Amino acid sequence: MIISMKRHSTKEEIDQVCERIRDFGYKVHSIEGEERVVIGVVGMGDVTACLESVEAMPQVERAVRISAPYKFVSREFRPAKTQVVANGVEIGGDEFIVMAGPCSVENEKQILEAAEGVAACGAKFLRGGAFKPRTSPYDFQGLEEEGLKLLHKAKQATGLGIITEVMSDRDVELVASYADILQIGARNMQNFSLLKTLGRCGRPVLLKRGMSSTIKELLMSAEYVVAHGNSDVILCERGIRTFETATRNTCDITAVALLNELTHLPVILDPSHATGKRSLVPALSRAGVAIGADGLIVEVHPHPDKAVSDGAQSLDLPQFAKMMRDLEPYVKLWKSSREAVAAVAV
Ligand code: PEP
Ligand code: MN
């Protein structure tokens, strides 16, 4: 059960509600938003009596029973879609948002060239890893803080928002001081201490689906971040591991539509890691637009043949420019279907 307090409720009023819940034998988990407090009720058994009692309290705006194991992120809790704002850009709103850039930040020239190139094509965020999760300890591990500084330079030059990965709870504060969105990679989707720390990081989070994770597990991980105080979470389908080896991963494109049913959080698609092959990226991107993703995160490198990581799946700048042009009619349709949904909601 989730209880929304009325706007600007006092601490005393909130405490009264929490006490009532505890009297029924449940645990309380409260989240303080800017304007209102939301209280999660955790425990076993039938909550009907507790719900009825709490709902009657004057300071309570709404009490809802949520059957899904993920509470705050479920559509049951919030029927309307959430918009996450980063660097002044709305994700999950009425614009289709593209994030683009190299897999790794390599040097100043590379990242500035990438940033200027993708900005000119309409991307709103620059991606680029400064902390890289690599399968081999002998592969390039990222420039760490130096990479973050280069991303910041690229932001100053182009105005693009920055999205970059954080791998450890130790580095959250550092990465949050440079980035507009913190990316949690597939390999860390269930790093629960990292997820808890993100609850207090003050930045939106892009949570990528683990390569062997179910949709429910992805949503439970998002729930961790939200339950620890940060409701600005964006989900990302990036392909899962199957018996098929012809592509790097198998894109679970249905996940995008299903997530849109199950959660109010924005959902984006990563066609680069989903395929591992640059020739497939434009087609999968079109599929992402068509199925109702809120945006894309695409790997783009000024010289993919020289990339230190993921060159085979990276588009060069002319290829990215062409893909963005070719997506235009699809994005137009996307926009009109968004407007139709919004009109129905009104
Ligand atoms: C990446 O975005 O470069 C990356 C490592 O992605 P994933 O975590 O999805 O493998
Ligand atoms: Mn990559």
User: Helical content, roughly?
Assistant: 25-40%
The residue ranges in which pLDDT falls below 50 over 5 or more consecutive positions are: none
Instruction: Examine the secondary-structure arrangement and name the CATH architecture of the largest domain.
Output: Alpha-Beta Barrel
Tertiary shape: globular
Q: Quaternary status of these chains?
A: single chain
| Overall SS class | alpha/beta
What is the typical, i.e. mean, pLDDT? Answer: 95
Count of extended strands: 14
Domains, number: 2
CATH third-tier fold name of the largest domain: TIM Barrel
In DSSP terms (H or I, runs of 4 or more residues), the helix count works out at 11
Backbone CA Rg: 21 Å
Could you describe the 3D structure shown?
The model has no long low-confidence stretch (mean pLDDT 95). α3 (108-120) runs parallel beside α4, α6 (192-198) packs across α7 and α10 packs parallel to α11. The chain is globular and about 65 Å long. The chain has 346 residues and is an alpha/beta fold. It has two domains: 2-64, Phospho-2-dehydro-3-deoxyheptonate aldolase, domain 1 (Alpha-Beta Plaits, 2-Layer Sandwich), CATH 3.30.70; 84-345, Aldolase class I (TIM Barrel). It has eleven helices and 14 strands. 37% of the residues lie in helices and 18% in strands. The strands form three sheets. Strands 7-8-9-10-11-12-13-14 form an eight-stranded parallel β-barrel, surrounded by five helices. Strands 2-3-1-4 form a four-stranded antiparallel beta sheet, covered by helices on one side. The protein has helices at residues 11-23, 48-55, 108-120, 145-158, 172-176, 192-198, 215-227, 253-262, 271-275, 281-291, 317-345; strands at 2-5, 27-32, 37-42, 60-64, 84-86, 89-91, 97-101, 125-127, 161-165, 181-184, 205-208, 233-237, 267-269, 295-299. Phosphoenolpyruvate (PEP) is lined by residues 103, 129, 133, 185-187, 208, 238, 273.
